[in-house]
TrEMBL record:
This is Bifunctional pantoate ligase/cytidylate kinase. It comes from Thermocoleostomius sinensis A174. Belongs to the pantothenate synthetase family. In the C-terminal section; belongs to the cytidylate kinase family. Type 1 subfamily. It comes from the Bacteria. Keywords: ATP-binding, Cytoplasm, Kinase, Ligase, Multifunctional enzyme, Nucleotide-binding, Pantothenate biosynthesis, Transferase.
């Protein structure tokens, strides 16, 4: 018996993680950013000098890596949720969720253009998904959680009580990302390059053989081009309260 699970999936840059964090805060639920796990593994692969296509080396790395997301929740096989689920109340301090892998603090580093450019290639490898999905399922097994990613409603928790599929046009997603960079005083890619990077990631994520990005049949799609973060959050909070 478990508490409800809220799955939020969608393409790159649709605002999933910000919305998911706000929803978790509003509803007093745990939050797990599964993309951060794939990003952390990617950072570690790049850092280790392993080729992003070297599946054997990556398999070994992912099976041994210690990933920790803020709130002290180790996602290792060795330390499973019992304790960590009590950390509920401090699980989501907006705006940053700190991320560590093998003791390296990688919160900012996993958002780099380089990690972003390679993460989909690594996330497409079956062995990587198998290991990270297993940790996600262990972490969420008691429910009471919002999880965002690409395959939560279709694969990680196909029985989630509420599934949301967040979308926005590529142009809008690129515009938001640039705004975010601007607000941080950075500008990593020009508009056209950024749109291309988003398209590339969408293509790899939705055409991979193992649990590709797609809307679950029973997911509710929210097209967010003309909605603010707060409006999307409010909509999902309403849906949650209606459903559960
Ligand atoms: O959500 P975010 O953009 O941080 O995810 C980074 C990448 O991680 C995605 O483009 C995708 O390749 C991978 N990912 C995934 N499955 C998830 C979450 C993320 O394959 N559940």
């Amino acid at each position: 018996d478990r508490q409800p699970i809220l799955a939020i999936d969608g393409p790159a840059g649709a605002g999933k993680s910000t919305v998911a964090r706000q929803v978790a805060q509003a509803l007093g639920l745990l939050y797990l950013d599964t993309g951060a796990m794939y990003r952390a593994v990617t950072w570690m692969v790049l850092q280790s000098g392993i080729a992003v296509t070297d599946q054997a080396a990556i398999a070994e790395l992912v099976s041994q890596c210690d990933i920790v997301l803020e709130s002290g929740n180790s996602l290792n096989q060795s330390s499973l949720p019992e304790k960590s689920l009590d950390a509920r109340s401090d699980a989501r301090s907006l705006p940053t969720l700190n991320v560590w892998i093998n003791g390296h603090e990688v919160t900012a580093a996993i958002r780099s253009v380089e990690v972003t450019a390679h993460v989909s290639t690594i996330a497409a490898q079956p062995i990587v998904r198998q290991e990270l999905v297993r940790r996600q399922q262990a972490y969420g097994r008691r429910g009471g959680i919002v999880m965002d990613g690409r395959d939560i409603g279709t694969h990680v928790f196909p029985d989630a009580e509420l599934k949301i599929f967040l979308t926005a046009s590529v142009e809008e997603r690129a515009r938001r990302r640039q705004q975010e960079w601007q607000s941080q005083g950075q500008m990593h890619l020009s508009g056209a390059d950024l749109e291309q990077a988003i398209r590339d990631r969408d293509r790899i994520d939705s055409t991979r053989r193992v649990s590709p990005l797609r809307k679950a049949d029973d997911a509710i799609e929210i097209q967010t081009d003309n909605l603010s973060i707060d409006e999307v959050t409010a909509k999902i909070v309403d849906l949650y309260r209606q459903t559960l």
